[in-house]
Amino acid sequence: MSSRTALSMALALCLVGGLLWQRTAGFSAFTYETWRQSQVVRQRPPVSDWRLQDDQGKVVRLSDWGEQVLLVSFIFTRCTSVCGALGVRYRQLQRAMEATGSKRVRLLSVSIDPAHDTPERLAEYRSRFGGARTSWTIARPADEQTLSTLISETGLRVIPDRTGGFAHSDSLHWIRDGRLVRISAWTDPALEGLLTDAG
Questions:
Q1: For the chain, N or C: smaller number of CB within 10 Å?
Q2: 70 to 82, 89, 137: CA distances (angstroms)
């Protein structure tokens, strides 16, 4: 092998290595979800003041909750898999908040299927889990532009499936002061602690 060929190969390997380093957040994120989580920690991207309609038909915005930390999940009421688990988890978190008297966090479930998920269907989703409105809001984007915006701003992947539903992330999105500051697994056992120390 000539020295010129060896140099070309070394440069190509460096280029590939650099691209992998960049695309995997320093070789620490090998799935889209872990990459998204690491990007959020690094960049804390801003989110706009989403216009939502809750399960009572009332229009609400992220800014309505002031300085509270919003713990946002994305669901749809026809979901037969993880959305039910998210509902159970949110009820558990709500009970933990009630036990500690925590007011720093607001739970927010947002439908990614607003055409189907009317306020009545969202109310049915709430009643399935016995969730109280005191600290848990269930809503849908008030218009298509809001749906498009929140998907773009969170990096959420929403993929229609063959049964009229969607494949989507089951992660929880922490929003504070108009910024997405953390994405965590809904199964993270540290969540109860985060309710009183939402750092």
A1: N
A2: 20, 15, 10
CA distance 26 to 80: 36
Residues making up the binding site for Cu cation = 79, 83
Secondary structure letter of residue 62 according to DSSP:
G
Binding residues: 79, 83
> For 81-129, what is each residue's pLDDT tens digit?
788 888 999 999 999 888 888 888 999 999 999 999 999 999 999 999 9
No. of H helices and E strands in the chain? Answer: 6, 9
Rounding to the nearest 10 degrees, give the CA dihedral for residues 122, 127, 132, 138: -10
How far is CA 55 from its chain centroid?
19
Name the pTM for this structure.
Answer: 0.78
